[in-house]
Design brief:
Mean pLDDT of chain B: 94
Oligomer: heterodimer
Mean pLDDT of chain A: 88
Family (chain B): Belongs to the binding-protein-dependent transport system permease family.
Shape of chain B: globular
Helix content of chain A: 25-40%
Order of helices and strands of chain B: HHHHHHHHHHH
GO biological process, one term (chain B): cellular response to sulfur starvation
Distance between the termini of chain B: 36 Å
Strand content of chain A: 15-25%
CATH topology of the largest domain in chain B: MetI-like fold
Number of strands of chain B: 0
Order of helices and strands of chain A: EEEHEEEHHHEHEHEEH
Structural class of chain B: mainly alpha
Largest interface: A-B, 34 and 27 residues
CATH class of the largest domain in chain B: Mainly Alpha
Number of domains of chain B: 2
Number of strands of chain A: 10
CATH class of the largest domain in chain A: Alpha Beta
CATH topology of the largest domain in chain A: Rossmann fold
Number of helices of chain A: 7
Distance between the termini of chain A: 43 Å
Shape of chain A: globular
Strand content of chain B: under 5%
CATH architecture of the largest domain in chain B: Orthogonal Bundle
Radius of gyration of chain B: 24 Å
Largest sheet of chain A: 6 strands, mixed
Largest sheet of chain B: none
GO cellular component, one term (chain B): plasma membrane
Membrane topology (chain B): Multi-pass membrane protein
CATH superfamily of the largest domain in chain B: MetI-like
Helix content of chain B: over 70%
Protein name (chain B): ABC transporter permease
Structural class of chain A: alpha/beta
Number of domains of chain A: 2
């Protein structure tokens, strides 16, 4: 049985169609990258996976069960910005999830339990390369380090699904390369299922096991919102060549221009 | 060069800042001297000599009738009322503001009431407070609470809602329940903002304090000012006003420093 199943899924806001007729089946441990023009429903789909939005029609199933209607500890998220807590140090940020899980009322760990949890935290910080900054405040970190922290904060909960919403969109290209390596390493170590939304088609081609292109098949020049987007390409990574890249690039850019017009 | 690009240096900025104070003092002392030259018993613009004599009498000599040092007695009475009023108002603001900001059901239920209450002119209900709570301490403290709490409640709720939505989602994905969202995310981030709100509310709080003391009291800075007004005792009123101003500045600066010390992440641009 597939891990995540999407059957004939539609999302509409009033008469504005965002997603139409989405069908997808994802196995556990896959790393899917979602690309497409802005306004093509990538982020909306991610929000549905997160439990922040619900579909208008169709099914969205996790191991055969409907998705929970609100975010929970099984689905981690990293946003482009504001994912970490400014009032906690790096270490406290990563510790947070463990504390919340073990202490429903106090929300804080003390003594021995805290020591055990902190060992886990320090291992996690080590693997994302933040050990030297463990006691810094988030505002003292660079953008790339903040995103490392956000990833560590989510992964320490061992979520079944990790959702990334343009996590590297605000970073310099050089830093982005480092972050790709880190993400692939962590994915191999943890075996968690990842969905990553990106604007960058190249990023989508390079990372992960599967590329999902969200695009509009139909377009009404007089009413750009009349038709929704769907998955136009569903490619295993590795089967991609230059020609295909150009085709997708052209199609996505065209949609972007239509959206803007 | 344009005016907007002229920046003063450190020394000239200090001098420019001092200049208005010096000018006011100069104008006052000239006017005072002139009136005192006409009539040495003039009460309207007392000179430095009369004012220091008055302060000495009020602050450093026992009152002949009661045996108290009046200025200190007035100060402690007023500060106790102010502290209690602002303290209660801030605690209420924190509770109601956070619940309003975090829980949509409470917001739907309470936000309209809080908005309406914040529009009631507090001095208009002062008579009601006197009738309900009597002329004692309670009615004065209540006036400060009613005058400052609703606005602080709105401010706190607004600050909570300004926290990035991403954080609210993130903490839910870390498994937080509603209570933990309040205690681990909203409360700690709103505390420094509450201190800022208290600083802004201190002005109105002083206003309500002095108004209440002026009408019904037996001690307090506002009571004293309004009492000696009957004798045109400007030599007492002016030092009292200066003293109140100094107290207000000191309290404000203490809060500012406490905010810096307690919440280093907040003041270093971590929000």
């Amino acid at each position: 049985m597939s891990f995540i199943t999407v059957n004939n899924l539609w999302k509409e806001y009033g008469d504005q169609v965002i997603l139409e007729n989405l069908n997808l089946s994802v196995k556990q441990g896959e790393f899917c990258t979602l690309v497409g023009a802005s306004g093509c429903g990538k982020s909306t789909f991610l929000k549905m996976l997160l439990g922040q939005e619900t579909q208008t029609r169709g099914e969205l199933l996790l191991e055969g069960e409907a998705f929970p209607g609100e975010p929970d500890r099984n689905r981690g998220i990293v946003f482009q910005r504001y994912s970490v807590f400014p009032h906690l140090t790096v270490r406290q940020n990563v510790l947070m999830g463990l504390e919340l899980e073990q202490k429903p009322w106090l929300g804080k760990l003390f003594g021995g339990a805290r020591k055990v949890a902190l060992e886990k935290v320090d291992d996690m910080l080590e693997s994302v390369g933040l050990s030297p900054s463990a006691n810094k405040w988030p505002h003292e970190l660079s953008g790339g380090m903040q995103q490392r922290l956000a990833i560590a904060q989510s992964l320490i909960m061992r979520p079944r699904v990790l959702l990334l919403d343009e996590p590297f969109g605000a970073l310099d290209p050089g830093i982005r390369g480092d972050m790709h390596d880190l993400l692939l390493k962590l994915w191999q170590e943890t075996g968690t299922t990842i969905f990553m939304v990106t604007h960058d088609l190249k990023e989508g081609f390079y990372l992960g096991t599967r590329l999902l292109v969200f695009d509009k098949v139909r377009n009404d020049p007089h009413d750009p919102q009349a038709f929704g987007a769907t998955i136009t390409y569903d490619l295993p990574i590795g089967q991609t060549d230059r020609k295909l890249f150009e085709d997708i690039h052209q199609s996505v850019s065209e949609t972007a221009r239509n959206q803007a017009a | 060069m344009r005016m907007i690009n002229h920046h003063p240096g450190r020394v000239s900025a200090t001098l420019l800042g001092l200049l208005p104070f010096l000018l006011i003092m100069l104008i006052y002392s000239l006017a005072s001297q002139e009136r005192l030259a006409d009539n040495p018993n003039d009460k309207l613009l007392p000179g430095l000599e009369q004012m220091t004599a008055a302060v000495d009498r009020m602050a450093f000599q026992e009152d002949r009738r009661s045996g108290d040092y009046l200025m200190w007695q007035d100060t402690t009475a007023s500060l106790a009322r102010l502290g209690m009023g602002v303290g209660i108002a801030a605690s209420l603001a924190l509770m109601v503001g956070i619940l309003n900001g975090v829980l949509p059901l409470v917001r739907a239920n309470l936000a309209p009431l809080v908005s309406a209450l914040s529009m009631v002119p507090p001095l208009a209900i002062l008579p009601i407070l006197f009738i309900v709570f009597g002329l004692g301490e309670l009615s004065k403290v209540m006036l400060i609470v009613i005058g400052t709490a609703p606005i602080m409640m709105r401010d706190v709720a607004q600050r909570v809602r300004e926290l990035p939505g991403e954080q609210l989602i993130k903490i839910q994905t870390l498994g937080a329940n509603s209570w933990q969202v309040i205690t681990r995310m909203a409360l700690p981030q709103v505390l420094p903002r509450l201190i800022d709100a208290v600083r802004l509310s201190l002005g109105p709080a002083w206003l309500f304090l002095i108004a209440a003391e002026a009408i019904a009291s037996t001690e307090g800075l506002g009571y004293r000012i309004f009492l000696v007004r009957r004798y045109l005792a400007m030599d007492v009123i002016l030092p009292y006003v200066i003293w109140i101003t100094i107290l207000a500045i000191v309290i404000d600066q203490c809060l500012r420093l406490a905010n810096r010390r307690l919440f280093p992440w907040y003041n270093a641009g971590g929000h």
